[in-house]
Amino acid sequence: MSTASREFLRNAAEKSADLVHRQIIRRAIDHYNQAVERRRARFLDWQEARRRCQEIKREAVIHLDRYLLEFERRVQERGGQVFWAETSEDARQYITDLASRRGVRTIVKSKSMVTEEIHLTPALEKLGLRVYETDLGEFIVQLRNEPPYHIVTPAMHLTRAQVASLFREKLGDVISDDPQYLVGVARRELRHAFFSAEMGITGANFLVADSGMIAITTNEGNGRLCTTLPRIHVAVAGIEKIIPRLENLALLWPVLATAGTGQPVTCYNTLIGGPRKTDEVDGPEEFHMVLLDNGRSELLADREQREVLHCIRCGSCLNACPVFRTVGGHTYGTTYPGPIGSVLTPHLRGLNEFQHMSYASSLCGACTDVCPVKIELHHHLLQNRRNAVNDAKRPLVERATFKLWRWAMLNAGIYALSGWFARAAMRIVHAVRIEGTPLDPMRLWTKYHALPSVPAKSFREIWRKNRGAN
Amino acid sequence: MKKVALFIPCFVDQLLPEVGLDVVRVLRRIGYDPEFPEEQTCCGQPAFNTGYWQDARPLAERFVRIFRKADAVVCPSGSCTSMVRLFYPDILAGTALCEEARMLGQRVFEFSEFLVKVAHVTDVGAAFPRRVAVHDSCHGLRELHLKQEPRELLRHVRGLELVDLPFSEECCGFGGTFAVKFNVISGAMGATKAGNAEASRTEFLTATDPSCLMHIEGVLRRRNSKVRTIYLASILAQTDESGRTAQPGDSR
Amino acid sequence: MARTENSGRERILARIRSGLLTPVVAHTPDLSSGSARPMVFAPIPDALERFQRECAENNTECIVTPDAKGSAEIVAGVLAALPVGEIFVQDAPELRRLAQAWSPSRAIRWSNEGAPAETSQATITLAECLVAQTGSIFVSSKCGGRGASVVAPVHIVVANVGQLVPDLETAFARLRERGTASHNSFVCLITGSSRTSDIEKILVLGAHGPCRLVTVLALHSANESGGGPAKA
What we know:
The complex is a heterotrimer.
Chain A: H1 3-17, H2 19-40, H3 46-62, H4 64-77, E1 81-85, H5 88-101, E2 106-109, H6 113-117, H7 120-126, E3 130-133, H8 136-143, H9 160-171, H10 179-196, E4 199-202, E5 206-208, E6 213-218, H11 222-226, E7 232-238, E8 242-243, H12 249-261, E9 268-272, E10 286-292, H13 296-300, H14 316-320, H15 322-327, H16 338-349, H17 351-359, H18 366-370, H19 377-390, H20 396-409, H21 412-431, H22 443-446, H23 459-466
Parallel strand pairs in A: 1-10, 2-3, 2-4, 4-7, 5-8, 7-10
Antiparallel strand pairs in A: 5-6, 6-9
Helix pairs in contact in A: 1-17, 2-12, 9-10, 16-17, 16-19, 17-19
Chain B: E1 2-6, H1 10-15, H2 17-29, E2 32-35, H3 45-49, H4 53-67, E3 73-75, H5 78-91, H6 98-105, E4 108-110, H7 111-118, E5 131-134, H8 138-143, H9 148-155, E6 161-163, H10 178-181, H11 183-199, E7 204-206, H12 210-222, E8 228-229, H13 232-236
Helix pairs in contact in B: 5-6, 7-9, 11-12
Chain C: H1 8-20, H2 47-58, E1 61-65, H3 68-80, E2 87-89, H4 93-99, E3 108-110, E4 122-125, E5 129-131, E6 136-140, E7 154-160, E8 164-165, H5 168-178, H6 180-183, E9 186-190, E10 195-196, E11 204-205, E12 212-218
Parallel strand pairs in C: 1-12, 2-3, 2-4, 4-7, 5-8, 7-12
Antiparallel strand pairs in C: 5-6, 6-9, 10-11
């Protein structure tokens, strides 16, 4: 069992027992679900919308090299610079070097999961730079010194009272826990940062190949300010974020908003193409696009799972997942939690260490149902499990058990006998009352279930006797 | 009498034989002659779900050989039916039996699916004057697209009051080996399902998968809940109190 | 940064190319290109009605006026109610004309003088086009710059009905015709005032961007061609 796996189980146990936490998550997700249902009704045919989005991403990924090169060329034509980062390290290095060379002291950041993936902020802070997360949810978890809880709503695990007391502790006088008031506190606090920062760092929801523009989807306006006021704009995105044409956004923007936040579209869908043009009023003087690989190009070669690269990071699989709803986002301990994280992380960070994520699922398929680009997430979990077995990464006891199990199942007589013994053992466990004690061989089950009554005869025994006649 | 083959999941065979017997009762009542090929053991799902596709493969081959001659196969489990219909072609890809498995999969039916879509029967002459809610088992719902079938059948049960279960499509948390490997999460999910059942004020909870019900029953009993689980066929096997077996199509 | 310093580029491209050689398993059958595809969005017969309805839902104040003169009066009214302070206005002929209707004591910074001040009370811009489907406004750098639509607490958009298109698809076609994306480093679809639900999923209007978005929509424009791009 890997360290990550042990951590996961420990966190899962803690969070599963935390009924308050479960209720908070539940309420947030129920609210989200109602909004999504309303917005899906705005589509004449939501399933057709999903199919078309799937096609857009499939087209983009099948010709990934071509579209990336087109994108790069157009960004450069606009006066922007493009850096291809093979690893997290490369990306961090590029950005920290840039910040150093340009004398950057303050950075404002818009929400970006990929910057979490490469652990950018700690690297910048190590240089003595002040980094402000400006997305409200990210701002909150930054103050708490914890990672984002969810890829779209980073602070959904907190109540307003918790946010108020956090602000009181870290920022000064806070007189109310009214969300409107708290947002005002954050706005005031961050405004100075926006206007004084030398560098703005954002992610990108889409990279538009035919225009050399990046598309950023936000609500708060923080992403806008990060790309307007500082003199340097750095955008970081995975190579798979490419889409072929600007027109694709006519569908992707409403779909992303519907699935991501239950809105028809978000407040600001911004297209940025390089630094400001010479005749423009304002805007950054420099634009740097960091394209991150970090294992994505390897996923292209996976004949079953290439489509995992179609993910638009909407977060709806997290919201649909009953496991996520039970244990919450922090339990996973990875940048990407929930179903997409459970599929992707073993690929990006190693099957050895992270296979448990693909096992921590009841395979209910709700994720696959909601995914707006029709990724068959739960089937990919199964494939990851098979890969773990085939790569001999499973525990010896488990492998041996299944070999034994297979031997028994291939012979009806042995199967029937094994069943008979199992039932007899269960009756004994119950009779001598070791159920639930350390001696109970079924304690993994009996910890949460009363043991069922054990039938005296199996179906086949009854059938053999009288063919089930009443 | 039309013949159908019975595919009785291993855990039903060993732990819930009443489920199989009730399926037989209902099938006979509507004019079918069920056969139980005794060579069958397990469809291979536990191994498959845990990633041991190599170990599931011989079981898949065995299943195909046992059932290849059947015109129709009925199975009281959405998950086992999904295994055969959806995943056998994957496991047997590239082998000689692959195509035959794919075709056999089209003839293997979950119990409610068989009644409604193949036998075209929604009234099996049952009586069960209780409040019943339906939990939508995940495989039945998402892999076999079953939603209305169990409800249609229950709507024709005399005296039965169909109750809405809040979040009926949310997974109960069984998930096979998940219930053991991640028992904490599974137990919590089961508790959520039990809580929803209690909130609906139903007397009974039913589903197309007896594995779900086994899990939920264990949780309910641990909580000393008033709600009880009962498999779909076991409801349909009930006839009215006078003991007279109603014929399908009897008017009320 | 010179290309030679980015050795990762070639390696990434090489891995992509070799990865793409793998034939993938297609699980879902592709729709045949011949068959008619279902529509994703319902057609919008009355764009103005839809635009107004969407604005009501997303909290954009949409005020319809008969003409430019009417718009000028409305804007004057909105400004009069604002606290004392500078307003930032996109330098465009239409807005220069409109400004004559405003109180002379209101300090104005025009976009040709530079970016909006941190303490601006309001910004006033034109738009590239309006989208009925979502009650949105497309702006670009030409509409007074990037900050014009986000820095101040109130953003006022002066537009006319000729700029209104039914849906996003049409909007993108119009932007494509005009080369808006090529001519600007910034294009933005704005839908309502800034907002967040990051605290308990409760919607709060007015986060880092404006808390008020006012669209003043004239039914008849001064130039009959139907609202071309605004020149800064």
